[in-house]
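User: Please predict the structure of the protein below. I'd like the answer in structure-token form so I can feed it into my own downstream comparison script.

Assistant: Understood. Taking the following sequence of 299 residues as input:
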Amino acid sequence: MRNEESILIPTPPQFSFEECLWFLNRNFDDCMLTIRDHCIYKALQLNGERVLIRVSEAEGAINVDILLGSIDKGVLTSYISEWFDLERDIQPFYTLLAAEPSMAYMAEKYQGLRLVSITDMFEAICWSIIGQQINLTFAYKLKRRLVELFGSKMVYEGESHYIFPEAEVLAQIEPEELKSLQFSQRKAEYIIIVARAFAEGIVSKQKVMELPALPEKQKLLTDLKGVGIWTANYVLMKSLREPASIPHGDVGLLQALQNHRVIERRDETELIARFFEKYQGWESYLVFYLWRSLSVKDT
């Protein structure tokens, strides 16, 4: 029986908790959540309130148990809905996939996979910078070191659950403090520059959201030193689910396009552009599903 500190959030058709859980549980050392017994444990800071939640699957719904702290349940419901993209009808995307022989299998094989977001744009940018030109395993190690040193935590049953550092905190540190964690000089500088921009209100998720079109959103982000167009597109895709935001040049994306015989060579930019034109309004979802396809051999 659920207690009063639990909420049920109905899920839409074409939603798979299993597929979303797969994405969050890919054997990387992710310090931002813990997955155990088919449940997600995650510490959050929303509207100035800290809370630890346990997220699990229920029939036709997502069950959220509030383990530590308290929060307005409407705020928490909105967060979960944004995290798992519950408001979106993805059937039109599946219709587009079905019209493409090489892509049609995705609608069935990955049915219900949602574009799982990084709702905190500051965190998304920092994560992109951390991951530049290194492998994912080392990137997750750097992220853990950053979060454990400068973030906050909640302890439940002897286990620590971390919240990503606030921009105001990272804005006050010096590059040497990050270099001691094995950050390169440039990455250390870039993260502090971005932190100061967010702390001073020069950039915010709300400001980006209010801009009228993708080019303006890209420019606001790429004006930040250390944020190139790939990073801007990744952040817009993962934090805002900007439909047309494609991280062109991404190695995984190019590999998936080759696997599906969309391109033969990775420099065939015109072919890639024409291919994505067929998925107008769903480009970022297609990128996410192509990334998903890399986990299996039978593409």
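That's the full token string. The chain has 15 helices and seven strands.
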